Q: What sequence folds into this?
């Protein structure tokens, strides 16, 4: 069977408008996916130059497949199973920063370049004290970006209209602002000049962003073989992604919206003056409900999220937790109930995806820090808004404590007692449930009793 390449398909070619740092599946499954859809719809008309920043692996597979790959979208939408396939041709070439840094600098001199996208992991956006911007290449991603911007500044003599829209997708708070601060620090330390620093601040747009899509990566052997039979070609870069996708970009500048014209192709791309509500929805409903449910799921004997969601009692618990207790705390901070309810329903679809193997034991990693960051503010908000203890949260919290083997009088128990001292009713309800969780077989029974008390309106 032939390997996927451009000779098999009559693909359109476009000018290189995007410089992307990273070859990972999240970038290929989200930004590159949106750009491909926009190109096919006649809304963008640009290709992507990808920079492979690490020295592990090579670019051979991309070269062998003419930078083409297939994305297989599999999951649940509105309760129904969906499967779709899209061939991605938006990448024009992949450059190794280690072996061909000169080509990366050459791309900075391209007058049609408008956008930079990155995903270099959370530790990628850090200030490296060893940085040398004139190395080939610089050590860090911020160093590489600063060198690219300086090359562009020198090439176009600081022209105001040659700045770039920069979209980091690393999962840190205010990623655009943090990245800009590091770039400015590097420019100052290496004495690149006041004019360059002014150009960075005034002519480039560092946007805070939030990305959300599960992209597990390559297909399993059986799925790969089936896909090859259906598509008629072999694809060693094929990836799978869930249907849900979100790329929230923070900007109120009309110029940014004009440059990011691909945002028109999919409601999953949102350009807004403030993206905080999208962070809250994701953190409290998606991540938070995961964390509340995790200990209970493990105690009940479930291995994966999809297995737990296939149980009618457990899935009802998760739904009640979100609709009855978490959503009211979001409405209290200005998020519309309808918007939050729609997001919660999509979370149920995502948790129920039969094509994903998401293990509860993996979710339990760093359990205490996740509980504190994701759910402590939700518990406190609920206490501020209601005199009633949130029973679904309390049960989930009891499951967490039992999973962590916390006992009354113990260090972890006392730590949380201090944190939750203003939520005394919640704490008392948690302890009552904790006493009932001594036998794993009654976990679902406790959940079932809770669900009999009230239904979603």
A:
């Amino acid at each position: 069977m032939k390997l996927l390449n451009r000779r098999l398909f009559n693909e359109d070619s476009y000018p290189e408008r995007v410089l992307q740092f990273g070859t990972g599946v999240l970038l290929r499954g989200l930004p590159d996916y949106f750009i491909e859809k926009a190109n096919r719809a006649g809304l963008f008309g640009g290709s992507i130059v990808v920079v492979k920043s690490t020295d592990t692996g090579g670019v051979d597979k991309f070269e062998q497949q003419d930078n083409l790959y297939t994305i297989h979208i599999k999951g649940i939408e509105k309760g129904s199973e969906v499967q779709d396939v899209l061939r991605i041709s938006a990448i024009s070439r992949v450059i190794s920063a280690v072996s061909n840094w000169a080509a990366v600098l050459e791309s900075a001199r391209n007058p049609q370049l408008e956008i930079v996208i990155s995903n270099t992991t959370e530790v990628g956006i850090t200030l490296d004290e060893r940085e040398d911007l004139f190395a080939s290449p610089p050590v860090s991603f911020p160093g590489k970006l600063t060198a690219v911007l300086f090359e562009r500044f020198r090439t176009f003599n600081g022209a105001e209209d040659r700045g770039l829209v920069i979209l980091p997708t690393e999962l840190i708070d205010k990623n655009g602002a943090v990245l800009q601060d590091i770039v400015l620090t590097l420019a100052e330390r290496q004495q690149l000049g006041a004019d360059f620093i002014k150009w960075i601040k005034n002519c480039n747009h560092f946007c805070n962003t939030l990305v959300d899509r599960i992209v597990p990566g390559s297909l399993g052997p059986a799925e790969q073989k089936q896909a090859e039979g259906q598509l008629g070609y072999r694809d060693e870069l094929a990836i799978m992604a869930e249907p849900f996708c979100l790329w929230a970009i923070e900007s109120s500048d009309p110029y940014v919206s004009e440059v990011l014209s691909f945002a028109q192709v999919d409601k999953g791309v949102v350009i807004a003056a403030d993206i905080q509500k999208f962070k809250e929805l994701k953190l409290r409903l998606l991540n938070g409900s995961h964390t509340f449910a995790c200990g209970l799921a493990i105690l009940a004997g479930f291995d994966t999220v999809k297995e737990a969601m296939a149980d009618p009692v457990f899935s009802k618990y998760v739904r009640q937790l979100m609709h009855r207790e978490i959503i009211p705390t979001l409405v209290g901070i200005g998020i519309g109930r309808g918007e939050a309810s729609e997001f919660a329903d999509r979370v149920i679809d995502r948790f129920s995806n039969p094509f994903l193997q998401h293990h509860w034991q993996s979710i339990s990693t760093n359990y205490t820090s996740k509980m504190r960051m994701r759910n402590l503010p939700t518990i406190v908000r609920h206490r501020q808004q209601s005199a009633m203890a949130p029973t679904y949260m309390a049960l989930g919290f009891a499951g967490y404590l039992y999973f962590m083997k916390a006992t009354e009088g113990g260090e972890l128990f006392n730590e949380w007692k201090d944190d939750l001292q203003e939520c005394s009713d919640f704490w008392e309800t948690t302890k009552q449930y904790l006493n009932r969780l001594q036998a794993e077989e009654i976990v679902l029974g406790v959940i079932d009793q809770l669900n009999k008390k009230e239904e979603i309106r």
Observations:
- The longest helix spans residues 276-299.
- The chain has a mean pLDDT of 94.
- The radius of gyration is 24 Å.
- The first strand starts at residue 16 and ends at 21.
